[in-house]
Specification:
The structure is a homodimer of 223-residue chains. Chain A is mainly α and 223 residues long. Chain A has a single domain, classed as Methane Monooxygenase Hydroxylase, Chain G, domain 1 (Up-down Bundle). The first copy, chain A, is built from six helices and no strands. In chain A, helix 2 runs antiparallel to helix 3, helix 3 packs antiparallel against helix 6 and helix 4 packs antiparallel against helix 5.
């Protein structure tokens, strides 16, 4: 019984890492669809969200089954609890990548991003996908991203969002309201994707140390 | 032992309902701060977020303790699992009310909302606070909001967001980029707050029926 339990737990953790990489791929594709107004790629991301949702439902059920049938304790219990939180984060990450792809689809064939903001989004896209990959590594190696790395990533995303608002609100912004609104919402989606990846890495820290991650830090401004 | 356990479980559920009403109050205050450019009220919401975060950490720890010490099964286990999900939703609801209040503070003493969009936000604020109250009722009575009511609320929030974009992107929008960006982000915060309230009500459905809520439905557009 215990042997089956540990095999199931390992398989759950392995699938969690795979799902995290899938979310990272969705983000990479969504970013490319956005940058290049690539409709088929946008459609690919949008349809991939069903897969994430199905994985979410399957993995949540497996977590509940493990709790019901095995009543795990100590480190094993922490793995199951963290997995339950992480599958929720991953579902949101899939949804957010999908939101980005849907804006690309909605505005197709127009390029959505005026030239001034393209480098900001290129960097945000890279950073978000990188954080998803780091979170997957953390799950596989049970080695949480260092606190320093997390703080750096948070700081960079915040700085990119501030930079974005400076561009949108500058007097020489000539593209009008709609592209600015799109850019602001896109910035929010990237930020939240990164937040969820960081939350997953923090969960790995909980599995390793037994200390629950504290509430997410409030961001300094309403933007 | 079992008696203590059930007393603890009841107390957890009671605190969850209180926390849900607190989130609803934060939203009501944030909406009023926004509509009336009321700085002290905005500050109250912003400082209240610490309370929500502290409640989150405390209640999550109590859930873990119940799992570790009691290994609950069946309906009791479902209550603990649902409570763990709900405290996460509530933390986000507090954060979102705080985001709204921070925009009110950032732009003070200016009124943030141009007249055209005020009625949309007044309705969104009412709806969001109402959903939080309904979710608290659902927790207290263990009676999930009817599926019809949930679908209606979802539809109304979607319709309000579409209405908002129509106003912002109309040719007669004369307020420029910054108020439009604020309004779009605010709309997103209200929508997510409502989503989390609905998710809590769905969790109550899980407690009652034992069926896990399916993944959230994708919204029809990237906006």
């Amino acid at each position: 019984m215990r042997e089956t339990f540990h095999a199931e737990l390992e398989s759950l953790v392995g699938d969690l890492a795979k799902m995290t990489r899938l979310a990272g791929e969705m983000m990479t594709n969504a970013s490319q669809a956005l940058q290049q107004a690539d409709l088929p790629l946008a459609e690919l991301v949008i349809s991939g969200d069903d897969e994430i949702n199905a994985l979410h439902d399957d993995m949540e059920q497996r977590c509940v089954n493990l709790l019901v049938l095995q009543a795990p304790v100590a480190a094993d219990l922490r793995v199951v609890i963290s997995a339950m939180h992480a599958v929720n984060d991953l579902e949101r990450m899939g949804n957010l990548a999908q939101h980005i792809a849907k804006i690309a689809r909605l505005k197709h064939p127009a390029a959505i991003l005026p030239g001034e903001v393209r480098p900001v989004f290129a960097r945000m896209g890279l950073l978000a996908a990188e954080l998803a990959d780091s979170a997957a590594d953390a799950i596989e190696t049970r080695d949480p991203l260092g606190a320093t790395r997390l703080a750096e990533a948070d700081d960079e995303v915040d700085a990119l969002r501030r930079q974005l608002f400076q561009i949108l609100f500058a007097e020489d912004w000539t593209h009008g309201v709609e592209p600015a609104v799109d850019a602001a919402l896109l910035g929010r989606y990237y930020e939240r994707f990164a937040d969820h990846a960081v939350a997953i890495a923090r969960q790995v820290g909980y599995v390793v140390t037994g200390e629950l991650p504290a509430s997410s830090m409030p961001n300094p401004s309403g933007h």
